[in-house]
Amino acid sequence: MSGPDPAVAAVRNAVRAGLSDLEPGDLVLVACSGGADSLALAAATAFVSVRSEAGYRSGAITVDHGLQAGSAERADALAERLRGIGLDPVLVVRVEVGNDGGPEAAARTARYEALDDAAARLGARAVLLAHTSDDQAETVLLGLARGSGARSLAGMAPISGVYRRPVLGLTRAVLRRACVAHGLEPWDDPHNADPRFTRVRIRVDALPALERAVGPGVAAALARTADLLRADCAALDEWAVTGLEAARATKGPGAAAGGLDVAVLAELPEAVRTRVIRLAALEAGCPAGSLFGSHLHAVDALVIDWHGQDGVDLPGGLRARRACDRLWIGSGEGREE
């Protein structure tokens, strides 16, 4: 007796590996748009959860952004299809997409808010996202184009809080083949071919051009680069946590409590020092999405290029300044205590 299609087996194996730590009764939600990637992931998750000895439960959530005609009807039909392959519960969440950051960013914000809320309400242990190695390659190229640092070039993590990306090591072609093998007809979102969106231009124009100029395998190489950078970033982040603790603990004679010891910071490599500054700013209440490299380097100058300059304004109404050989990050009206 022949086994499943190799693509189906690959997706199922990826799901098994990605959920191997779950326990009986845990709920997993698949975020499903109706596209080939998320449908294949949903089918594999339904199969594995039934066959798994772990005994976890599998459901799904589809988010209706309301940006295209007929989206509500498609979302309802998709929900029925997901129930038909064995997922329960299945939620349809309708959201309003704002304007902040452009259409792509606004839709993403609304989508993740809906996913966060659904996971919290249902007590889901994990929310599965169907990002593939092709998506990872596009993310790395976007980071390169924007001049982002290593954290951005490290791409998407397999696990980030409640979110998991079990098929991040598989290609989009494998997911589509698995979807077809399941007899599931995917919905191809026209926005995924709309050149108004940067990611679409990366997918349709930039990556194929690189493949032609450099040779095949560029997408896979970019995804591998993300894996390597993610490991480096993790090590640097751990070092930064230790550095932050050391800078807080060290006090010179008569130094006031609070703040970060500038001498300790100055001894750290720049890559670690700017991470320490970022951690301190986030803990002080700086919004992560608004804290850029330019902010961190301006604060870093208070440490390594000090000549009595004024402080640095940071997002969230915060201010960084140097006093008594310590770096203070707090509200613009006073220093951090």
Write a structural description.
This protein has 337 residues and is of the alpha/beta class. The chain folds into 2 domains: 6-224, Rossmann fold (3-Layer(aba) Sandwich); 250-331, Uridine Diphospho-n-acetylenolpyruvylglucosamine Reductase, domain 3. The chain contains 12 helices and 10 strands. The longest helix is centred in the last third of the chain and has 32 residues, at 218-249. The protein is elongated. The mean pLDDT is 88.
Number of helices: 12
Order of helices and strands: HEHEHEHEHHEEHHHEHHHEEE
Q: Helix amount, in percent?
A: 40-55%
CATH-level-4 superfamily name of the largest domain = HUPs
Q: Radius of gyration, Cα only, in angstroms?
A: 23 Å
Q: Can you name the CATH architecture of the largest domain?
A: 3-Layer(aba) Sandwich
Which oligomeric form is depicted? single chain
Placed side by side, the strands forming the largest sheet appear as 3-2-1-4-6-5
CATH topology of the largest domain: Rossmann fold
Class per helix and strand makeup? alpha/beta
Strand content: 5-15%
Shape: elongated
- Mean pLDDT across every amino acid position: 88
* CA distance, first residue to last residue: 70 Å
List the domain count as a whole number. 2
Main sheet makeup: 6 strands, mixed
Return the CATH class of the largest domain: Alpha Beta
Name the poorly predicted regions: none
Count of individual beta strands: 10
